[in-house]
Write a structure and sequence with these properties.
Blueprint lengths: L9 H5 L3 E6 L4 E6 L6 E2 L4 E2 L1 H19 L4 E12 L8 E10 L3 E10 L2 E14 L5 H6 L4 E3 L3
Parallel strand pairs: 1-9
Antiparallel strand pairs: 1-2, 2-6, 3-4, 5-8, 6-7, 7-8
Length: about 150
Amino acid sequence: MSEKKAEVPAYIEALKAKIIEVNFLDEEMIMSFEPSSDYCHSNGTIIQGGFITTMLDCSMAFLVMELTEFQKTPMSIDINVNFLSAGCPGRVIAKSKIIKLGKSIGFISAELFQNEKKIATASSSIKLASFPGINFLKDNVGKNAKIVSKF
């Protein structure tokens, strides 16, 4: 039986997600997104909070997947988001980091910036589920990422 190839989820393409850097040494990741006015309210000027949450959650999840060499997928137990300032259509940067990663439970956090201004933060508790082989990141979202190795 052949292994099903993992496809890039539609929201990844729609938000133009890209992994900029994976730092295995510090257990951190930097990603960019470019939400259009289609993901905004107030006449297309302010990014809707659910999409802010998606970008933060995505950056945290992808970090865990990278660090576990795509052997584990994080399943959110909870996610706490703080909206600090309005985000507008255009490029945003998410910086995620591991707080603690155990065998089955982990704690992660992320910050979202636009034009170097912090617009939101998140923290999440996760359950590590086994879904080996889900690695669409390397050849798609992360194909041009800078890798900082632990070796």
